[in-house]
Structure formats: structure tokens, C-alpha cells
Amino acid sequence: MAPVPNPRYLFLASPAGWPDLSKDFQYDDSRTIDPDTVELNGGFITKTQFLSVDPYMRGRMNAGTFMAWQPGEPWTGFGICEVLRSETPEFQKGDTIYGHLPFEHYTVHCIESAHANMFRVIKNTENIPLSVYLGVAGLPGKTGYYGLKAIGEPKAGESIYVSTAAGVVGTVVCQIAKEWGLRVLGSTGSDEKVKFLQEDVGIDAFNYKTSCVDEAIKDFGGLDIYWDNVGAEMLDTALINMNHRGRIVICGHIAEYNVPDEKKRGIKHTWEMVYKEIRMQGLYVFSYEEQYADEFYATVPKMVAEGKLKYTEDITVGLEHAGELLMSVLKGQNTGKAILQMYP
Ligand SMILES: NC(=O)c1ccc[n+]([C@@H]2O[C@H](COP(=O)([O-])OP(=O)(O)OC[C@H]3O[C@@H](n4cnc5c(N)ncnc54)[C@H](OP(=O)(O)O)[C@@H]3O)[C@@H](O)[C@H]2O)c1
Q1: Does residue 336 line the site of ligand 1, with CB under 6 A?
Q2: Domains of the chain, start order
Q3: Contact 236/213 with Cβ under 8 angstroms?
Q4: Cys-Cys link to 33, which of 6, 70, 79, 100 (CB 3.0-4.6 A)?
């Protein structure tokens, strides 16, 4: 094969607040590669099919943070790729792999980087769409499943409130909590998403932009578990509505990601934690991978195939649209799991 273009999507500079598409990122289509002849040096070459675009990526633009993106280097994130050629028995030509990938069409990997980037061959015996392995059956799904189990410690009959409930993490938490016998309340930012939660997911839900959050929670009743995707006032309001010995899972703080002034962040009602003996714990999904991954892959893709786990996807075609897609996620404009499909 003659050399083919190998475009990539670069991170250029750390934004102070909201990213600026014209300055902070760049689509670079200047490189080429010959996938048939490029040296593998004992490794393997993959062609990327889907890449996940997630809110946590905003944090990776801040210099000095954990796994910070490096200026001049491609974005990285979880994706699905196909092995084109391999010189290692661990990955065979034709395998579909899930793992942490650079935002580019073709990548040559060594075996050490494949391990470091959590590569896992996806057998897909359930025959679900591959993109779902980036959503409810991927990192966001694992976040919901692992966090609910390990930190939420749910018991049938208990109540849970989930913020950003129509997002990928949120829908997994809501549906698994329901499956495990909990009463579930979710909030989201549009009436269309409220309808999805009520009719498709089958839970109580409200629009936090047009309703009083405190009243909506009080109408539902005290909370045994609060799943926090948002931080800020939402977390404060949940805190004053927790039951005795309630558990708060701190999963994300999307309302604060683009607020550069630290004085404008934070919560006030931590005193509630003292006399109610509330436990608030941060969730870091990767800490539970070894413990729960096999259980997760045996459970969740099957639930999807059987129609027991509903999901929505927002698929954008073309690597050049990565920045716009991330902005829509950060602004709450996506209508499902945000996914970049590399080719039409
Ligand atoms: N702890 C971990 O290990 C871990 C791992 C993965 C993800 N996370 C976190 O989990 C959370 C959910 O992730 P996801 O992938 O499922 O994302 P997601 O729900 O698709 O995130 C986008 C949604 O966030 C909401 N949102 C945006 N700006 C907001 C604001 N200012 N205030 C309140 N809500 C806002 C919007 O939904 P609405 O219309 O409902 O507002 C938007 O559609 C994120 O905070 C993410 O960082 C944590």
C-alpha cells in the first residue's frame, strides 16, 4: 500500500477558563504512514475506529494535573481500534481492542505501552455495537458500576439521587440501582432528557434548571445515597437532604471544571456530615479495575444485548471535530455518550 494520511488532533495550550478552539487545539493532517510496511519492532499497528470524548478531558488540559496532556502532542483518551498487523502473540491481526489511545488514525504500539494503556481484547460475543464499549459498557459504565458497588454500598429499598442522571455515568448508576431494588431520583438539564429518564430509564426525574432542587428532593424523600457528578450548589443541596449514615459518591464536579476562581468553588453544609454520620468519598474508577472488570464485562454487555440497560449516543464523524464535540459536552449540549467515529 502507498503511504496514507495519518491525521491527529493536537493539544496546544492550557486554557484559563473555557477552551478556545482557535488557539488551544489543532487538527494536523500533515503526516502519512504506510500501515503495510512501517517497522513494528516487536509491537503491533492499529487503526482507530471510535474515540470517546468525556468531561474529564477538560481537567487533563491543566498543566501539572494527573495525566495532563502535553502541549504539541495529540489528545489521548479511551477508544476502540482494530489490529492491522502484529509481531506479538498477545494481539492478533483482526482483534478489536479497547484501551487508552492517541487521537490519530493509525498508531504503532509496543507491548509495554499496550499494558500501560490498559488494552483489552473485546470479544463482543453479545454482538452489541462497538461504540457501546466506550459508553455504558466502557469507562463511564465502569465508573457507575464500580462506584455504586464499592462506595455507594446500596441496599434494596434505599433511596438514591443521581445528578447528571441522563449522562452515561448517570444512566448506568440509575439503571443498576433500579435493578438492585433502590428508589431512584435523577436530575438533568432539559425536558427532553427528563422524558428519557422517566419513560425509557423508568425513574423519577426533574429538570434542575427549571425546578427547585431542594423541593424536588424533599418531595422524593431523604437520601441514603447521593451520586455527585456536579459539585457546587447541587452537592450542598443534597448534603442537607441526606439520611442518617448516608453515603455520597464524589464522581465528578462538572459545574466547577471551567470556574478558574477557586474562591467561587466549594460547599458550605459539611456540618450535616457530623451529626448525621454521612460518609463522602471520592471515586477513582481505575482503582477498582482489577477487582470488578471481569464481573463488569460478564454483566453489562449482556444487559445491553437483552435491552435491560438503555443508552443514548451522540456520534460525530471525523477526527477534525474533536474540539467542537468536547465543547458541546462541557456545555451540556450532547444528547448521549459523545463519540467520535473516525471514518464515515
Ligand atoms: N471519578 C471517576 O473516576 C470518573 C470517571 C469518569 C467520569 N467521571 C465524571 O463523571 C461525570 C459524568 O460523566 P459522563 O461521561 O457521564 O458525562 P456526561 O453526563 O455526558 O457529561 C455532560 C453532561 O454534564 C452536564 N453538565 C454540563 N455542565 C454542567 C453544569 N455546569 N452543571 C451541571 N451539569 C452540567 C450536562 O448534562 P445536564 O443537561 O444534565 O446538565 C451534560 O450533558 C463527569 O463529571 C465526569 O468527570 C468520573
Answers
A1: no
A2: 4-135+311-341 (3.90.180.10), 142-286 (3.40.50.720)
A3: no
A4: 6
